[in-house]
Amino acid sequence: MNLRRAYFLYLLSVIMFGCNGIIASHIAQSSITIVFFRLSLGSLFLLTIIFLRRQGRELIRYPKDLLYVTLSGMAMGVSWLFLYEAFDRVGVGIASLLYACGPVLVMALSPLIFKEHLTRLKCSAFAVVFLGVCLINGTELNFGGDWWGVACGLLSAVTYALMVIANKQAKDLSGLANTQVQLLAGLVTVCTFMAVRSAFDFSIAPSDWPWIFFLGVISTGFACLLYFSAINRLPAQSIAVLGYLEPLTALFLSALLLGEKLYALQIPGAVFILGGAFVAEVIGGRRQTS
């Protein structure tokens, strides 16, 4: 896969992830139940493709990659659990801001782990992007003194960084096999948590099923296939910067499709995200290649 295609797949997956809040708003289930069905249906979708293509033997061929991707999938499952717990305790605004620290960690560690050169221009552009995220989510801040909720938000960021770092260590596993292991490991992690919490007792309304299937198969299975096929080909710094287009997509779609109000600070926030990403990837990329 060439670099341009990897960027395209990554951006497409990020935009698809940004649609998840719109889809989930039509599902009358708890957050943990939605996560469970996302991972279950996404895994089933990819297992079907692997069976049809007869690619199961690839997993045996690269045991080291298999270990890294399994750890990455477990980190993803834990990250989602912490994030949704933070949503419930401290609200979407603070939880999203804390979760946004995950890409900061990835970018900060990229020179040490991936030997990537961190330029002043990219650092400045990243700061502008992060400021944009703060402006977008800052209108919904409601702390309430719940320190466990804050801790959950921070832990979701740390485990996000672990997910990206561990997955980028898997160099030989194909995107399909990589994503399948990732989702299965995440599913096992979430199922373990649900078993401890006795959270398997749920009832699904018939009107929820079309949205659940779309969220699980398309917005999780297919989108994760694009995402994990791309990140091993991209610099960690690019993953960090461009990943912030996800909340931007969610912001505009929620305003367009759900009629949610756009606040005054959110408009410059969106400009900062787009402008910072452009400077980091287009201008910064040209300087590195020149």
From TrEMBL:
Belongs to the EamA transporter family. Its main location: membrane. It is a multi-pass membrane protein. Residues 6-137, 147-279 form the EamA domain. It holds the Pfam family EamA. Keywords: Membrane, Transmembrane, Transmembrane helix. This is RarD protein. It is found in: Membrane. One of its GO terms (cellular component) is membrane. It comes from the Bacteria. It comes from Peptococcus niger. The lineage of its organism: Bacteria, Bacillati, Bacillota, Clostridia, Eubacteriales. The chain crosses the membrane at residues 7-28, 34-53, 65-84, 90-114, 121-141, 147-165, 177-197, 209-228, 240-259, 265-284.
